Structure prediction request, 305 residues.
Amino acid sequence: MTINPDLQGRSYPAAEVYDVGREKIREFARSVKATHPAHFEVDAAKALGHSDLVAPPTFAIIVAQRADAQLIEDPDSGIDFSRVVHAEQRFIHHRPIVAGDRLLAELHVDGVRAMGGGAMITTRAEIFALAPGDAGSREAVATTTSSILVRGEGQ
Amino acid sequence: MSTASTIPAFSDLTVGQDIGSRSIAVTRTDLVKYAGASGDFNPIHWNEAFADGVGLPGVIAHGMFTMGAAVQLVADWVGDPAAVVDFQTRFTKPVPVADTTGTPEPGALIEVSGAVGALDADAGTARVDLTVVSAGQKVLMKAQAVVRLA
Prediction:
């Protein structure tokens, strides 16, 4: 199966809202061996000027990879998940992610490049927070970019 | 749980300045925890036979585990995890994690060190360049975290 070259330029609109919970921030922080009190104690986060527990710098990967799954699971993409290798990742934070945020991610396929029998695919997730009480208003939170190498046969 | 030490001031920083180092012990249990916390259940991170079958040197750590654990050195140094406004890396080598279940031994060690790589006075930001090594090999390349300082 080959990668569909027409993927480049494709976008997937924001799907489900991701609700950022305190316990998820604590669980994710422990899982990357983060010990900063701002991930665990509300008072420590507030002392730094944040409204609630602060997510670790790579927490947005949860939301970004859910968005990526729309592409990977798209039968039209030609991507075999078992042959996917993560090649590059970047997080640009427009403002911190904190507990209570309601996040949405729009996925954009920025690049598809043939490599041997496989392909390098670059995706960008634009992550927004829904403003409380106003379903129509969005605030930019983070831009994540991810490059995945889909290995071809024999690679 | 450590309390924040002295938060660095932008004016005190110089390019090349060492921000410290740490050694991260990794076990198979850590990979299962990261899988659950992140939602990345690719079996190459927990099933030996599957990992071998796709040509890997056994079970390997999630690249995002290594990236997420490595940046903790920066978050603790800067004193506020939210000060990390930009963080990127390339994943160059896998980190195989041996099965040491039932023993106190780690399955892998990841050595992280950092230095100030660039300063931007207009933006009030510093770029920290991380060196991340496991089993003698650089496992991340161009691992750069930009932090905003007071």
Remarks:
- Residues 28-38 of chain B form the longest helix (11 residues).
